[in-house]
Design brief:
It holds the Pfam family SBP_bac_5. This protein is α+β, with helices and mostly antiparallel strands. It is about 30% helix and about 20% strand. It has 3 domains: about 40-70 and about 185-280 and about 490-525, Periplasmic binding protein-like II (D-Maltodextrin-Binding Protein, domain 2); about 75-125 and about 135-180, Dipeptide-binding Protein, Domain 1 (Dipeptide-binding Protein, domain 1, Alpha-Beta Complex), CATH 3.90.76; about 280-490, Roll (Dipeptide-binding Protein, domain 3), CATH 3.10.105.
């Protein structure tokens, strides 16, 4: 899973001279601005066009919001991050853990009238496995072969026991129609930009790039006929014009999460409802364990005690953030959380003591961050200023995003300030982020004991078996400061008070724009 920095727009003052709303038919005082909500149409604001209509490749927010309504996944999530049925009705492992099975619904159809079958699932996962692209490829390394046992049953043969496999493939793999995608020489390069054959609650019927994406209801959608006849994604230049359009009644929802300052302002608007959505990731500082003196745990612990966590959450995030108790097992996944974990106290004197024990004086370090990320740009100076009280000099390096990502990938930093967007499956996620050679192991952690604990958790076929070793791994990450988790953000999604019925799910990507939520949305009253 690639590291993702939360991409929220900059919050600026709302003024009368804000840019006009694209596609608007009138001003804020237009006659239809305050019309009652209608089940005919739900209009959602976004700040980006669809870049890629191939769901196996596209990974921007707008890409996902649109294609998730078109292409089913085996599972969805509930509010706690637990997997719930979607295309799959049940799933299980064999006793030895080397075979995984998923049983499918028999009432989902592609828009060309053909049924969605196990062959489509097999084709989708095999294409990713062979061409090795996208998020899923890095999460299904245990897969040997997938086969369709029947039209409604898929069997996955694994090279090793992997209790993360079904959660990974279930949540991350979009299922595409074999009849359509198999005609392309390369599935990865297939544009899929016209004549869409889909199987979600809504089908894409019209695209006006830079303006809107129109999706019509699928009346015979297996899990249930959506209430709304049409969903329209409208493209806006920024959050401020989205907010104006929402207040004027020109849209019903803002898709992207609100910057904390904007959410604070909208709290008092009775025409607007805010849905609070827990993040599945976290904001953090990572210290390059391959660089001296950061290879000394006492120095990393000194840095952990030199951060004013509460101030960052209350001031930079306006209170829209929770403590994770310095643990990588966050409150967003309560079934995994370790209640014994405690947040590092902001204690400059303890920092000084630890640095003295490590023989460090006048410690100077650089800290890289994405200068375009509004939250991190706000709290990075707070990290620097708090560290000064411990006698630590941190030189901030706010970088253009591509430069920042390049330095991160090359592990070219002392301190990395950033965030994970979706960390939904701890045994799999901790393997990617902290196991020796892990794809997103930016801190360059190499700890054989930690590797062994993560391996144990990944081999476990139930959460009950995986929980003890993964909690012990999280305690090691905490104590050795392989990661310094600052907070878990509470996202705010705004919609008109004239709408109700949404089914919130954790993460910025799912929020209330997930397929089950939009299918259940209806006018209030």
């Amino acid at each position: 899973m690639r590291r993702a920095v939360l991409l929220t727009a900059l919050a600026v003052a709302l003024t009368a001279c804000a840019p006009s709303v694209p596609g608007s038919s009138g001003s804020s005082g237009s006659p239809g601005a305050q019309a009652p909500a209608s089940a005919d149409r739900l209009t959602i604001g976004t700040t980006a066009d669809v870049v890629n209509y191939n769901p196996l490749v596209g990974n921007s927010r707008t890409d996902s919001w649109v294609t998730d309504l078109m292409y089913p996944k085996l599972t969805q999530m509930d509010a706690t991050g637990k997997r719930i049925p979607y295309l799959a009705t049940e799933w299980s492992y064999s006793e030895d853990g080397k075979t995984a099975t998923a049983k499918l619904r028999d009432d989902m159809k592609w828009s060309d009238g053909k049924p969605v079958t196990a062959s489509d699932v097999v084709f989708s996962v095999t294409a990713v496995q062979k061409e090795k692209f996208g998020v899923v490829a890095g999460l299904i390394t245990a897969l040997d072969e997938a086969e369709a046992v029947s039209p409604t049953e898929v069997r996955f043969k694994l090279s090793r026991p992997d209790g993360t496999f079904l959660d990974n493939v279930g949540f991350w793999l979009p299922v595409v129609p074999e009849d359509v995608f198999s005609k392309a020489p390369s599935v990865q390069k297939f544009a899929n930009d016209k004549d869409w054959v889909s199987a979600g609650p809504f089908k894409l019927t019209k695209v006006e790039r830079g303006q809107r994406y129109i999706m019509d209801r699928v009346d015979d959608f297996g899990p249930g006929k959506p209430t709304v006849k049409q969903v329209v994604f409208r493209v806006f230049p920024d959050v401020n014009t989205e907010v104006l359009a929402l207040r004027n009644g020109e849209i019903d929802m803002i898709g992207n999460v609100l910057p904390p300052a904007t959410a604070t302002e909208l709290k008092s608007d009775t025409a607007v409802k805010l849905q609070e959505i827990p993040s599945l990731g976290w904001a953090h500082l990572q210290y390059n364990t391959k660089r001296k003196p950061l290879d000394d745990v006492r120095v990393r612990q000194a840095l952990a005690h030199a951060v004013d966590y509460e101030a960052i959450r209350n001031i930079a995030l306006k209170g829209f953030a929770k403590s994770s108790n310095s643990s990588v097992l966050t409150p967003s996944l309560p079934q995994w959380t370790d209640q014994a974990s405690k947040e590092y106290a902001f204690d400059p004197e303890q920092s000084k003591k630890l640095l003295a024990e490590a023989g460090q004086t006048n410690l100077r370090l650089g800290m890289i961050y994405d200068q375009a990320d509004p939250n991190i740009a706000r709290w990075a100076p707070m990290v620097r200023d708090a560290a000064k009280k411990a006698g630590i000099t941190i030189e901030l390096q706010g970088l253009e995003r591509n430069t920042y990502l390049d330095k991160t990938t090359k592990r070219d930093f002392d301190i990395y300030a950033g965030s994970w967007a979706v960390m939904d499956n701890p045994p799999a996620n901790l393997g990617l982020a902290f196991k020796s050679g892990g794809f997103i192991n930016y801190a360059q952690v190499e700890d054989p004991k930690l590797d062994d604990l993560i391996d144990q958790a990944q081999r476990a076929l139930t959460q009950e078996e995986a929980k003890p070793p993964i909690q012990e791994a999280a305690r090691m990450i905490h104590d050795q400061v392989y990661d310094n988790v600052l907070y878990v953000e509470t996202f705010n999604v705004a919609h008109s008070a004239k709408w109700t019925g949404f089914q919130p799910m954790p993460s910025e990507l799912l929020s209330i724009l997930n397929p089950l939520s939009l299918a259940a949305a209806k006018p209030a009253g």
